[in-house]
Structure formats: C-alpha cells, structure tokens
Predict the 3D structure of the following.
Amino acid sequence: MNHNEEQAKARRQFTERLACTLVFTVVQLWAAVVIIVKADVDGVVALAVAFVLAGGLIAVHDAWRDVRSVRRELDVEIREDLVRL
C-alpha cells in the first residue's frame, strides 16, 4: 500500500470515528435529558442515577478527546507531506 492509500484509509477511519462519536454523543445527551426529565427518584436511587449520568458524560468527553487526538495526528502527517513537496 503506498503512502496516498494509507492517508486515504486514515482519513476514512477518522471520518467513521467522527460519525460514530457524533451519534454516540446525541444518543447519550438524549438519554440524559429523558432520565432527568422523567425520573422521579430520591435518596440512594437519585445518587445512583447521578453517577450513571456522570459516567455517560465522561464517556462522551473521552470519545471526543480521542477524535481530537486522531485529528491532530492527521494534521501533522499532512504538514509533513507538504514540507516534503
């Protein structure tokens, strides 16, 4: 596989990861809103729900951090290719 094919594959994988992260974020936010609006809980159950929601938000943050990291790597590769030209 030549360098251009590797770059195209890396960009496609990034696009797939970005799309999955967008869908994941929308679903997590929708679920959090539904739980907050519809849940009528108190005490220990409310604390458990809060921890579950916090875990979901941490997962969303981690997914976006991963997307940004891959994006930076792609940007560096593109700059290196431009410098070689």
